[in-house]
Write a structure and sequence with these properties.
Order of helices and strands: EHEEEHHHEHHH
Distance between the termini: 18 Å
Largest sheet: 3 strands, parallel
Strand order of the largest sheet: 2-1-5
Number of domains: 1
Shape: globular
Strand content: 5-15%
Structural class: alpha/beta
Length: about 200
């Protein structure tokens, strides 16, 4: 199965499940940037519930390949601090957080390059090939499994099995967060978790 996905910033659980379960992954490179989407935001399980971390961009540049990141505000420190606050007590935080820190402390010329780095980090942790083919043209009805519609504001028809989260006792289980949540909490068992998700249930 070949699956077409839009780029994402530290992609959500369902995105990574598609990547793990697909025979081939195709990344949409010919679309326009969409605000308030996974392209520039991720959700984590903070001490006070779901927390959204967004990357500031110049929205006047429409192409997803060239949408610039703004570094006028120190969003990197904010994101790192929020991730640390959320996951410092998770079982695999000390092992994995240094990789996240190194990644975010680099400066990227575009949202595309930042997102690609986060995707490749997840693939590195999963021991997947980090070579991802990109689309050469935009197709409204591609002849592949089209998962570009994944969006934080769309009702999720795919259920994700519960696992132990740091603040679950206080806030309840939260599904389809950034896959960082799975990695920090499950470590090497993350691969099995992504495989367990039934992507065909509707």
């Amino acid at each position: 199965m070949q699956t077409l996905l839009s780029t994402a910033y530290f992609p959500p659980v369902i995105w990574v499940a598609y990547a793990v379960q697909s025979e081939e992954l195709l990344l949409e490179s010919q679309e326009n940037f969409q605000k308030q989407s996974y392209r520039s935001r991720m959700d984590i399980a903070g001490p006070n519930g779901k927390q959204t971390l967004s990357v500031p961009v110049d929205r006047s540049i429409k192409s997803i390949l060239t949408t610039p990141i703004s570094y006028q505000e120190d969003w990197v420190s904010k994101h790192l601090k929020s991730i640390e606050t959320a996951y410092a007590n998770s079982p695999f935080f000390e092992v994995l957080f240094p990789d996240v820190e190194v990644l975010l402390k680099k400066e990227y010329s575009s949202l595309w390059s930042l997102n690609l780095a986060t995707i490749q980090l997840f693939f590195h942790w999963l021991e997947l090939s980090t070579q991802i083919p990109f689309t050469s043209s935009y197709e409204t009805a591609p002849y592949v499994n089209d998962a570009r519609s994944l969006h934080p504001k769309e009702k999720l028809d795919i259920k994700t099995p519960a696992y132990l989260q740091v603040f679950e006792q206080k806030n309840g289980f939260m599904s389809n967060l950034s896959a960082l949540d799975v990695f920090f909490n499950l470590g090497r068992s993350s691969w099995d978790y992504f495989q367990e998700i039934n992507l065909r249930q509707k």
